[in-house]
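Handout, section 4.2: multi-component inputs.
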Amino acid sequence: MEETETFEGYASKTPKSKALHERAKKVLPAGVSYSIRYFEPYPFYTAKAKGSKLYDVDGNEYIDFWLGHTALILGHSPSAVIKAVKKQIEKGTHYGTAHELEIALAEQVAKMIPTAEMIRFTNSGTEANMYAVRLARAYTGRNKIAKFESGWHGGYDALHVAVKPPYDMPESAGLTPGALQDTLILPFNNLEGVKEKLEGIEKKTAAIIIEPVLGVGGAIPAEKEFLKGIREFCDENGILLIVDEVITGFRLAPGGVQQYFGVKPDITVLGKILGGGFPIGAFCGPAEIMEKVDHLRYQRPQFSFHGGTFTANPITMTAGLTTLKILEDGRLINRLNRLGDKIREELKEIFEASGVGVQVTGTGSLFDVHFTKEEVKEPGATFRADRKKLAEYHLRLIENGVFFLPTHNGALSTAHTKTDIQKLFSETEKFAKSLK
Ligand SMILES: Cc1ncc(COP(=O)(O)O)c(C=O)c1O
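Output:
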């Protein structure tokens, strides 16, 4: 397909976005505030969002399967959250002091996630992972941390490594060898490979950090046996297991991976859904570990610092609390998980019927498509698949009112209707048939 032809349909529907992108490029590098939000030929610019839909400045409507980086499990601006936030806004947007809402949300998290006896809030998942790594080092007195190939934990220097192949190429300029020298890279879903990589340095390793379902890596779930093996390996060697549940937390199960996969983290990192549509991150765990953050118990140099101007912002706390109370009994989450099963099955059938080789990955309400005949159990396979075709599939969907951030996985919200899902199937079918 000619490049101009590829973009023609999209361009004809989005002239105002094109103009905004020209304007944006002068003040925002690449015209966006996060590189992944850019896609070819230019991103559409959103004017408003409600329920399962995004509306752009040209008046186009999109069924949203990206959901604010998967954060919006109740869809855009759910009425219960908006009502609570409106009430809170009148009482103050930011206190910068201790307040009751932060206690209430911490209690709610502790109630839902069994190992989360104590919690600290941050403003992003990146920050939460940074503080979790620091805490693990403080608690164990060790320096090394191990992460997995294609694990994405945000832009913190020590974790911003080996996200996309080639894994030995720096992910960003400006990362010093010093920042990365204590980070080890492990193969995903490969217990023997993990043991091999850490042989001889087990006792220098503070933590293994894992995404239980790789996000950027292609919505690949960790195998239960693999997670169990990692847990045992950590226990045998005094290593802390940090589970980064920024995507999976309150999405796969009300109690997180410990409920969904049956593995207990030492430190759980949360974000996205926890904020109810507002910026957040958090790290939590048993009191014995979390108390290292307590400056009343520990003084320098034993104390592990955490803080920040907007931590536990009352608007975020309100939105998060309202959201978790809605999700607490697991009914909605389970319904979305069942819908996820159906979507994975149906997408696979649609492509198979057209003779297109795809692998559909994911679990619960997360799903992804890979144009490859190779089984996708580790992230290398995600990146060996035809990514150009994936971007083309997503752009065709966007053109026809179905939004996935090109080459990224999809997620479900309780706002998605049967008609929305049907539209995903019918547009996918059109695309699959066009490949014949
Ligand atoms: C698993 C995981 N961890 C951490 C992060 C970083 O979170 P944030 O973008 O809020 O800094 C993300 C963001 O996508 C994520 O998916």
